[in-house]
Amino acid sequence: MARTAREVLDDAVRALPPGSNRLVPLIASGAAPRTAVAALALEQHHVITGDRRSFLHLAARAAGRGQPAVAAFFDHLALGEVLALGLLPPLAAACGLDEEAVRAHEPRAGCQAYPAYAAWLALGAEPVDAVVALTANFAAWGGYCATVSRALRTHYGFDDTACGFFDFFADPDPDGAQRALGAVAEGLADGRLSEPLAHRYGRLLQDYESMFWDTLADS
Question: Contact 112/215 with Cβ under 8 angstroms?
């Protein structure tokens, strides 16, 4: 019996659990210094802008190949990055950062390995394979954001506006989930989906995700 899009995505999430993460437990307990949270906000300015460009490129590639559902998925992600970028200034302000500090920040390689690999996927991966890989990674990222959001309120005194960035990614995205299903169904129908490659890409994304958090833990 042919596999369904739901089976493909559920299997990817199960096969690609979150990797190691030294910083989120520290934030969850209130033990992480505020400087680590500030560094996270600074690095995310670069991550978000880089990922948005990658998603737009993947959308354009998919559209050019006659894959409208895959293109719609990445267009949705790109729009989400725009919204997320607008939520970063209140987080930065709560960390004591002004616009000059954001502009002056020099990004760390360990934090920017993830968007660099996303850019590689945008250039070289089959777009629908990237859909599967990113969906599995977003499940991990959303869980981290939910934990951080609660902890910032409980231990660091951040208000709802300051936590909006993390709330955005922690909240369910039913539209995005439906677009992911449509994209994978399209990839299954046209024979372009390779689950082994999608899982390879997802594994590397999870590793780069861990690198992001561990680099911040060392800051």
Answer: no
Percent of the chain whose pLDDT exceeds 70: 100
Q: How far apart are CA 124 and CA 144, in angstroms?
A: 28
Helix orientation angle between 5-15 and 174-189, rounded to the nearest 10 degrees: 110
* pLDDT beyond 70 at 1: no
pLDDT in tens, 114-128: 999 999 999 999 999
Cβ burial, residue 161 (10 Å; 0-12/13-18/19+): middle
